Amino acid sequence: MNLMNHEKHYNTLNNYYKNKYQKKVYKIPLNGGFTCPNIDGTVATGGCTFCSFMGSGDFAGNKREPLKSQFEHVKDMMQLKWKDGLYIAYFQANTNTHAPLSKLKTLYEEAITLDPNIVMLSIGTRPDSLPTDVLDYLEDLNQRIPVQVELGLQTIHEKTSDLINRAHDLKCFDDAVFELRKRNIEVIVHVINGLPYETKEMMIDTIKHVNTLDVQGIKIHMLHLMEKTKMGYDYKLNPWPLLSLEEYVDTTVDQILWLRKDIIIHRLTGDAPSKMLIAPTWTKKKFVVTNEIDKKLRALNLFQGDYYEKFSNS
């Protein structure tokens, strides 16, 4: 189904949900108190160099509060804008499958019953944190309520992956997508533009690889350099060139043109907590970023997937 309209030249999440549910749908972030296998020594220590463990999931709830109060707090704010919305219970902070299956069952089963208008469970995790028992449980849960899993890829380039201490390889990611899709679970992939020393061509190559996978959605983020991160510390000591707004727009527009038309774009930029952001400061103006992307696509009169369809087989 082509969900693009005259306003946007790509498949937006908002338009997709309006077509599917006939109502406004929004995520309510929840914090289940998870840690990360890349920090606690399960697979590595130190975490990804761009990530502040303390700041991870800053927009999720307070892990010291019950899920119900976390949910109601965000719901109350959302209802000021949309009285008649539907909700997605979203485990956002850190690695939300990194726990014994018994804990996951307790949290997920509670989450899907927090409100009768919850239409989906969304789980952010790492591809190396999906053991078979968890995958099989998610398959069962997906029979009762749609389950969506968000996986961080960030980049396909192993040199960059090693530099930022991802602590898993590309095959691990591809295998996780395969196992989730084998169980009919929707997959959303995260990528980051502007990682150190990556060229525009390298960032487009990451999108070309995503096209080869059975994924249903994508989130494209700009690299945020933050306080209390190794990368932020290194940048302060010895700054390197970061993408300008113009370069980010140029790269992201080309990524959209290379992206398969059926993949839903969940976001084209991201947030970092203002008090923690070191650079680039232009990322604070999210609407400026998305407006510039829209303006360029309209000026070119091109749409998501146009390059993919024209050049991928040439």
Q: Classify the fold: give the CATH topology.
A: TIM Barrel
Strand content: 15-25%
The order of strands across the largest sheet is: 1-2-3-4-5-6-8
Characterize the main sheet.
7 strands, parallel
Helices and strands, in order, run as: HEHEHEHEHHEHEEHHEEHH
Gyration radius from CA atoms, angstroms? 19 Å
Q: For the record, what CATH class applies?
A: Alpha Beta
By secondary-structure content and strand pairing, the structural class works out as: alpha/beta
Task: Give the CA-CA distance, first to last residue.
Answer: 25 Å
Query: How many strand units?
Result: 9
Percentage of residues assigned to helices: 25-40%
Could you explain how this protein is built, in words?
A seven-stranded parallel β-sheet has the order 1-2-3-4-5-6-8, with helices on both faces. The chain has a two-stranded antiparallel sheet with strand order 7-9. Mean pLDDT is 90; it is low at 54-58. The chain has one domain (13-311): TIM Barrel (Alpha-Beta Barrel). 39% of the residues are buried. It is of the alpha/beta class and 314 residues long. It has helices at 13-21, 67-78, 101-111, 132-141, 158-163, 170-182, 200-211, 230-237, 245-258, 286-300, 306-311; strands at residues 25-30, 86-91, 118-125, 147-154, 186-193, 217-222, 225-226, 264-267, 277-279. β2 (86-91), α3 and β3 (118-125) form a beta-alpha-beta unit. The protein has eleven helices and nine strands.
